[in-house]
Amino acid sequence: MSTTTPRRRLLAIGGVLAAATLALSACTNSSDDGDGDGNAANAGAGDNAETGDTVRIGFSAPAADHGWMGAITDAAVKQAEAFDDVELVNAEGTNDVNLQISQVETFINDKVDAIVLLPFDGAAMTDVATRAMEAGIPVINVDREFDSPFAARTTVLGDNYGMGVSAGRYICQQADGSTDAVVAEIAGIDSLPLTQDRSRGFKDALADCGLKVSNRVAAEFTVETGERAAANLLQAAPKIDFLWNHDDDQGVGVMAAIDNAGRDEFVMVGGAGSANVMRSIEADDTVLKATVIYPSTQGADGIKLARLIAQGRSMSDLAEVEVPRIVQLAAPIVTKENVDQYMDSAFES
């Protein structure tokens, strides 16, 4: 059994997050040029920005049925448009696994140079992604991981565990040494590994300052389920000091339930980084005081990496001669003090 203390574990996590931030900056921040739209493309600088052989990249993602997913596709398309050596084959977003499998099979038959794939279901898409790899087409897996390491050349991930850590650390700071604060949590879909990772990170971070989750409910990443779950939580918990909601899209419903209940005695932290939440943080006129970023740039990062891999290039800010196999993005906390830094990259819920 490990003898590492919780504080040391979290310090180690901090080092991992810092390294992930470095990897991300090498991929997406190699230029200061841009049009001010965080979801628009940034073509990079140095060797990576030089025009190379034209490559065809197939892109497939789930349907844009909420703000974060819509932002993923928009950012990917804008990123491809920023390069004059990329031809994007953009499949229609779908939540039908069989249709998404068919889309990838079409990419294989058309012999695209690379595939960027955010699976609706990572396990279900593993076989067809593996077939693409076996056909010599590099697959860049975005956000939802495949079941096999052989199904992707490179994987771009958010940091779900890190989201929980960031939310928990912020609450620990706000609690300022109090160990009897009442902490509540509104999770997403409990059966999903991403939700489990977020909750585990949250629990670990709270434990580091002697706090724990007293009341917890799960929603389903929608406005309706967010409102219903929050109403149930507020009824069951007459006193709350801090509340973390995993997802800003479902947070629209959570805020509606809070307003309907007339509750304002607690500090709320959001999750993902929507524009409406950031505007609320900036205005400082609701219980929402912070949110944790889960980047909606992952599809755009996938396009940038697919281009480099298909052209046989590396990331110019790294000494490594190959594009890394895993790029994990950071999960920073956004508050009134730093909201301007993240507003341009926010998505609309």
From TrEMBL:
GO terms for molecular function: carbohydrate binding. Pfam families: Peripla_BP_4. Keywords: Signal. One of its GO terms (cellular component) is cell envelope. It is found in: Cell envelope. Coiled coil: none annotated. Residues 57-313 form the Periplasmic binding protein domain. The keyword Magnesium does not apply. Residues 1-25 form the signal peptide. Belongs to the bacterial solute-binding protein 2 family. This is Substrate-binding domain-containing protein.
